[in-house]
Amino acid sequence: MGRRPLDGAPRHRSARHGRPLRDRCPRHPRDRHPVVPDLMDATRRSFRPVAVSLIMWISTGILVVLMVVIGRALPEDVVFTVSQAATLWALVALVALLAFAVTRSRVHADDHGITVVNGFRRRQLSWDEVGSVAMREGAPWPTLVTRDDERVILFAIQGSDGAAAREAVAWLQGHVR
């Protein structure tokens, strides 16, 4: 009854957050909900090593597939002992743990400060504690230097990302007080 192609599923009950301000068309690309906050707020940014994480998880998967294929292709008279099989699976677990640590890495910055998660270590610093953020030419990732001259590697921003890494470092440098 008067529905357009991009209107989405019919609603039989109204939402519990009040009357709609205007006609909704949820699947239309220009439709904006009036209460959704701007997620690209200029005062809050997060950085993650997406490409490196993807490569690590793909490498882990390839390692598992290779182990299974090679294990199945061996002649029947060749049998791994329990300790040999455990060693191989421990190697896969170690690679998966490293992939998880890389995936966990992030840098979150807002008006109050910066949170750096490198693997399994988390550091929270206010902007007053940050001395500088720099990434030398050809460096794999930027370095944050505190006012106490302590260096913190920002592993979540990868130098291999090129322009995106330079833009991230420039954004962080603009927030250092």
From TrEMBL:
Assigned keywords, A-Z: Membrane, Transmembrane, Transmembrane helix
Comp. bias intervals (Basic and acidic residues): 1-10, 20-34
Residues that span the membrane, as ranges: 50-70, 82-102
Domain of life: Bacteria
Disordered, as annotated region: 1-34
Coiled-coil segments on the chain, per record: none
Boundaries of every Low molecular weight protein antigen 6 PH domain copy: 104-170
Protein name as annotated: PH domain-containing protein
